[in-house]
Amino acid sequence: MKKFFLLCFGMILLLLLGVSCGDYQDETYTISALDAAACGVYEVDSLAISLRPAALPDTVVTFADRVAFLTEAGIVFGVDSDSLWSVRFPTDSLYMVFQVVNSGDKVIYTDHNVNFSLSDGDTTISPAEEAIELSTVAACPYIFSRRVYHLGAGSYLICLSSEDPVNFKMVVLNKE
Tell me: the pLDDT tens digits for 147-163? Predict the structure, then answer.
């Protein structure tokens, strides 16, 4: 009786082991073509376009004044999918003007934890999407954050801040 019980127990154990082995098979994950393109731009960081913004003076108050000041200072950039923007914090926060020519979805990637805010006048624009897939993080360690914005043509003010000011890199791509 004891042998029969051990034999049945062994067969059940083998059956359970055989059924559960499917859970441990290799799985492959891929990242989107857009995320792969951003990762490719990050990998060629020797071609990064350097932005060294100046601090905004206290006299600049309105959106129009900020855009005018930043345009004069040369802190303007647009979407160029072949470029990596290397941005240096002069203080704990900085402002840049983002010129959008063609309306549509813009994806902004950064390689550090920075507080990012986008506005068009007095209105702050919330990202349509901020989630980043784990497969993207695993495949491309350069991408720390990913934000998607629905933007029309025009000028936008980007405010970046960080408790630990660092040089960080940013890629802006058109989402197709």
Answer: 999 988 888 888 888 87
